[in-house]
Design goal:
Order of helices and strands: EEEHEEHEEHHEHEHEHEHEHEHEHE
Helix content: 25-40%
Family: Belongs to the zinc-containing alcohol dehydrogenase family.
Organism: Thalassobacter stenotrophicus
Largest sheet: 7 strands, mixed
InterPro entries: ADH-like_C (IPR013149), ADH-like_N (IPR013154), ADH_Zn_CS (IPR002328), ER (IPR020843), GroES-like_sf (IPR011032), NAD(P)-bd_dom_sf (IPR036291), Zn_alcohol_dh (IPR050129)
Strand content: 15-25%
Distance between the termini: 13 Å
CATH class of the largest domain: Alpha Beta
Number of domains: 2
Number of strands: 15
Pfam families: ADH_N (PF08240), ADH_zinc_N (PF00107)
Cofactor: Zn(2+)
CATH superfamily of the largest domain: Medium-chain alcohol dehydrogenases, catalytic domain
Shape: globular
CATH topology of the largest domain: Quinone Oxidoreductase, Chain A, domain 1
Length: 345
């Protein structure tokens, strides 16, 4: 099969012909229809993700057709499925309690095992997969496995965003745009923060009530002024100290901070404004992925037309263009996200 392989950090991926994946006894092999290119892939590409080593095939936001099923698989050949990026074992205490995204036995295609920057991908623990609803394109569905699910779980499963609350979103990449779209669907009033004017205009066009260019000064103070005291919920979508602290500092008393941006490598440990947390009696949550049992709540929202995630997708690309998209994360990115839909180009 054709695959994009990491051979050297921060260098173009090598487009190679590699062996087709073997089918797991407890899983399936998918013909990949679409795979998103995510900032988490970039962390591995530059060498800052502790699990990603040279030789890795990245790609963890995928949707595809089952072409082979193991004897203990739940799905059958021909099924079109979408995958969460965390594949949970289903039997440990975390899984049994419903917190599959914290499973200690989790499998991670794209980070530890070969991922979906390839024509085919092996998926163990296929009980995590969900059937692709009729009418939902594979291109849009590919983004659900990481950015959209993480944002949805953060807003609803962790911070409990309520109708009428102010939601501040710091960073308008894929996860930030997902939070904007989903937050509006939940009835929140959304403020988006970024440093790229085009991305702020894009967020405004998608319904953000206010947009703030972080280069213009104290983000926390400006959000408190706009909201009359601060946001009830604030989501950090980059994983860097500046936006983490802006998120904490923009909250109203008893506000809820959600950490969605991945702090890894040189940002794994950072200095945060603990005084803001203490004085504001703030709650700090994190959301990494989403338990697979929560997929129906998200898919139902999309299929009944309550939310349209298609504006998230900016570009459909060929496999050989993946390196260009990863390199773009080295600086401020353009609006929207890229999805690989042609694995022969």
């Amino acid at each position: 099969m054709r695959a994009a392989v990491l051979r050297e950090y921060n260098a173009p991926l090598s487009i190679e012909t590699v062996a087709d994946p073997a089918c797991p006894d407890d899983g399936v092999v998918l013909k990949v229809e679409a795979c998103g290119v995510c900032r988490s892939d970039w962390h591995g590409w530059v060498g800052e993700h502790p699990k990603v080593k040279p030789g890795q095939i990245g790609g963890h936001e995928y949707c595809g057709e089952v072409i082979e099923a193991g004897p203990r698989a739940k799905h059958k050949v021909g099924d079109m499925v979408v995958a969460p990026f965390i594949l949970a074992c289903g039997s440990c205490p975390s899984c049994q309690s419903g917190a599959q995204n914290t499973c200690p036995n989790q499998r991670l295609p794209g980070f530890v095992e070969p991922g979906a920057f390839a024509e085919y991908v092996a998926v163990p623990f296929d009980h995590n997969l969900s059937l692709l609803p009729e009418g939902l394109s594979a291109t849009v569905a590919a983004g659900l496995g990481c950015r959209v699910t993480t944002a949805w779980h953060g807003l609803t499963g962790r911070a409990g965003l309520q109708t009428g609350e102010w939601l501040a979103v710091h960073g308008t990449g894929g996860v930030g745009l997902s939070a904007l779209i989903l937050g509006q669907a939940l009835g929140a009033r959304v403020i988006c923060v970024d440093v790229v004017p085009e991305k702020l205009e894009h967020a405004k066009s998608l319904g953000a009530e206010h947009v703030i260019d972080a280069r213009d000064g104290d983000v926390g103070a400006r959000i408190k002024e706009l909201t009359g005291g601060g946001a009830q919920v604030s989501m950090e979508a980059l994983g860097i100290p500046a936006t983490v602290n802006s998120s904490l500092e923009c909250l109203a008393p008893l506000g809820r901070h959600i950490q969605l941006g991945l702090p890894t490598g040189h940002t794994a440990t950072m200095e945060v404004n603990m005084a803001a947390i203490y004085q504001g009696n703030l709650a700090v949550y994190a959301s990494r992925g989403m338990p697979s049992w929560r997929y129906p709540s998200l898919l139902d929202l999309i299929t009944r037309g309550a939310v349209d995630m298609s504006p998230l997708i900016a570009r459909e690309i060929g496999l050989s263009e993946t390196s260009r998209e990863l390199a773009a994360f080295n600086g401020p990115t353009s609006p929207g996200v890229a999805v690989i839909t042609d694995f022969t180009a």
